[in-house]
Amino acid sequence: MSVIANNLTKIYRLKGKVYKTAVNDISFSIPTGEIAAFIGPNGAGKSTTIKMLTGILTPDGGSVSINGQSYPKGRKKIMLRIGTVFGQKSVLCWDIPVLDTLKLFKDMYNVPDAVYKQNMEMFCDILDLDEFINQPPRLLSLGQRMKADLAASLLHNPDVLFLDEPTIGIDVLSKERIRNFILAVNKERRTTIILTTHDVSDIETLCEKMLIIDKGNLLYDGTLSELKGLYKTTDLEDIIKRIYLNGIMTREQGVANA
Fold it and tell me: Taking CA 77 as the corner, what is the angle to CA 208 and CA 218, rounded to the nearest 5 degrees?
């Protein structure tokens, strides 16, 4: 397995002795080469879980394993083998050309010249990176910046890629470019990808495995096709609304409603 979460728990202390359980003892695994959608309503615990998976937050209980390495002992090795794109926070240097940031990342990750050249050709071919590579991020559109962030996160050929709302606020054509790029990277490199999104089209286009979380609890861990079969419909948006409102349907309920 590429990513394993074991009994992950995170509790936040609010005022005084008031505590809030953001993530409640959840476990799941994502095989190498899978693209998994990790979804839930706002405040469900998605971001907290992703931050624990990427080492930003330390769990109050449970553990994370990525390609056989666990925090905190394997933290450095994990950091070198993952990539992250957070839709609301760029990793790019704001006032220097995108190309200079990519060269900086090349040096940070000790990317060989041949790998750098190959990746840059791929980025320019699929993402049209060459159209804005010499401009600073502050002058780019949201879609262009997201493409540049994707390039930065994949420059060192990570084994696991975490994508948090990679198509939020982006026009239809840019969304298609980004989705095609994600699919190409997954197919050619067998990169394991964990995607958080509110866009049903992202899930339909990219994912087969789905994880659904709400109020810190993992409600569903299975495939998209199994979920549609359980609810006897192909309308994923309707299924998700029903789960958010009523919780996940049991298989017994699915049979009874057939």
Answer: 35
